[in-house]
Amino acid sequence: MKNKFLSLSALILTAVLAFGGCASSADPGKESRTDAAESIPQNESQTTAQTEPETDPETESETEANMKIPTGTKGQNPIISTLFTADPSAHVFGDRLYIYASHDVFPSRGCDLMDKYHVFSTTNMVDFEDEGEILSSADLSWGAEGFMWAPDCAQKDGKYYFYFPHPDDTENWNSTWRCGVAVSDSPAGNFRDAGRLKNSAGGFVGQADGTGNDYGSMIDPCVFQDTDGSYYLFIGGGAKLYYAKLADNMLSLAEPLKRVPDEQCPDYHEGSWVFKRGDTYYLMYADNEPGGNCMRYSTAKSVNGPWTYGGVFLSPVRDCDTTHGSICEFKDQWYLFYHNAALSGNGTLRSVCIDKIEFAPDGSILPVVQTEEGVDAVGERVLVSPSKGCIASITDEAALSLYTDVKTYRASSFDYGGGCNFNGTAIENLHLQGSWFEVNGVNGGNGGRALVTVYYATQDTCATALVNSTGDKSGDGYFLAMRGNGSWSDYTAKATLLVDLNPGSDNSIKFTCGMFGVNVAKVTVAVIPAKS
Questions:
Q1: Does residue 87 have an active-site annotation?
Q2: C-alpha angle 71/72/73, rounded to 5°?
Q3: Could you report the per-residue pLDDT of 368-393, keeping only the tens digit for each?
Q4: Residue in 115, 133, 209, 270 annotated catalytic
Q5: Of 23-37, 130-144, 276-290, which gets the smallest average pLDDT?
Q6: CA of residue 178 relative to chain centroid, distance
Q7: Average pLDDT over all residues of the chain
Q8: Which of 153, 207, 231, 369 could staple 203 via S-S, CB 3.0–4.6 A?
């Protein structure tokens, strides 16, 4: 969990990661990276960068200003750009809305690298706080490493129960799925491993329970609280959906799992979510649509069904084959929470989005319009500490102006490896898998958040980097997107993010690349000076 150093706005909308996202570009551009400095004419700014004498990191100054509460009413999609998140389960606990999401660890290797769950919260649907990491596979006394897939959470009698799919065995992961449970007194952290959810026969959910069911992939748990106070588990992937009532202890099932008939949820794939609106129960799920799953739904007058098919309400999402989400009401408005891959252009690096959902007079769900601007704020805008902010970049001028102690580090001073090289002006060939560069001797001031700005050039639509800093206590790093500026040598493009640094000048910031190409000329690091 990242330290909470400052009380400063991180509503902080991103200029680099925002609308339009990142997508792959053609390989021919990669051929020009090796000799970018020679083959592409240098503009005036590059010439200056190459000929000015290299000096020790220099301090620049900016004008201080008072921090202001963010203005405007719109959020953005995706809502989180500091890490990759997917499969959002949304719940209202008290006066806050919480999103429990899976975490696609960057750089991606596949579904096994999903780990380190975070929870995000808001009071107005626009200013989100990252409450930090709440559970990882390393915290468990059982199961494989990684493979922490789509979770859910429920509250009962002051306790919060976090449910997550996780396999018993790494080698045979797809045939040993179990439903883990962790328990906390808070919706936002301190979850403790409570083991595997037990079935009604005393074994674990997914194991034989005397029914003869072949359960297969017991993934994507959804826990629904009915109006009578009963709790139900819906679970299953691989075209099989099961459900059962939970026992009072929330750690076992009160009855054997029953399968929802295929005809009641046509083309069911995975990702079930159940909610109730008025007297109608809704069951939403992801289908098997080739090339991009859709979200469908069915309705019923009882949580036990029978369910009547309602149709498709969400078309395939951007740059991603999968779909998974939840529907929740907050402050008299219904919302759909889902994911896409707009930031990365990679379906294994997804990002949570929110859009409004509307119902017809007969209760049917109207098709959802996927937007880049997101939803309107409901209630006053609030300040979010940068250490809890979900947006890594800053465009808010008042927030920027606080970072007045600025030092510049040029590419000639970087350490680098993994196949990349220095062309006299910039680090290039960062498209190579495992390529990296590192800025050392970074001034962290008195410690805390620092504003990092990367000056770069790329003809790819969007290059990405995993950023690790010495002050990052959680150890999972930060994500940086560098959108294309149409050149391999115009180093005026810049991307910003906030990182944690230790006090003093013995910090390092490492950028691990390998997902599309970028040439980097310099990095600036700014801290808020200590008060005299």
A1: yes
A2: 130
A3: 999 999 999 998 888 776 667 776 55
A4: 270
A5: 23-37
A6: 24
A7: 84
A8: 207
